[in-house]
Amino acid sequence: MNPIQQRTIADTGSQARTNSPGAAKTLASLRDEVETQLDRMVTARSEFPTNLHEVMRYSLLGGGKRIRAILCVLVSEAADNRGRAFAMKAGCAIEMVHAASLILDDLPCMDAATTRRGRPTTHRKFGDASSILAAIGLLNRAYEVIAECSATQERTKCEAIRALTKAVGTEGMITGQEMDLNEHNTFSDAANVERLNWLKTGVLFCTAAEMGSISAGLDKKTTDAVRRFSTHIGLAFQTADDVIDQQATAVTAGKDVRQDTDKQTLVSIFGVDGALQSCEEHLELARAALLESGLDGKVLNAFIDSIFANRTRN
């Protein structure tokens, strides 16, 4: 299997190029903490309406790398742990938004996907109607999770909610999905593809890091560097995902593949080698922005390695 197909923190954290077992352990522990928090934040299956809560839990708790939540928390930790408790809540809210977006993205009227994370997609298991309601439920629960943090200043919560709503709305993911559905076939250059990658994937990475920065109360200059750092991580991640779509099998990827054969991607424009080179370039720009931020970069660099270790070379 091409190493770029292996994409879980649990599986690759120990392979980080920093050779830091302590950092890898930190990332694994963080992922476990996120999973525990998410389990507590969504209503039990036994609570009315039982079917809706089962669908929400299936979608949210069915695996995943929790990269966005971990990124949010790590930015806070890199700033001397300022606002870490709120960053954890905000990170979990982002995971709810991400889960909701996957439900909608997989629907027959969107990508018509059948498999996600090695299991039937939500609509295949529970039907379209309940899946849509679950997505709406998760989106609203995300905002509620942020709003109910009583120990956090109202201004901080408002800034976090504003960042999240902007990422979801017409300046972010919704527009990305619309472009993917109705404009993708008109793309003829890498700039449009990168814009789409930013809206569909990069924007939520960027918002995760920004919410970590908001949690820690970082200044504008540092926050701008953090945003650039996470933007390049998100763009690299989507490019790697496009390579997986072309090279992996449904079994090894854990989801449907060859979904983008009729769409322009960096792989179709530059070929696999060119796309991997673009991925590497984004990672270098991410590391440069992290250095510029002045934050403690040890674990954040290990975080990058845990996602992309050995994935940018055949």
Task: Write up this protein.
The protein has 314 residues and is an all-alpha fold. It has one domain (3-308): Orthogonal Bundle (Farnesyl Diphosphate Synthase), CATH 1.10.600. It contains 14 helices and two strands; from the N terminus they run αααααββααααααααα. The chain has helices spanning 9-12, 21-41, 50-60, 67-78, 84-106, 122-126, 128-147, 154-168, 173-182, 190-216, 220-247, 250-253, 266-293, 298-308; strands at residues 115-116, 119-120. A two-stranded antiparallel ribbon has the order 1-2. A hairpin with a 2-residue loop joins strand 1 and strand 2 (119-120). The chain is globular. Residues 1-19 and 310-314 have low confidence and may be disordered.
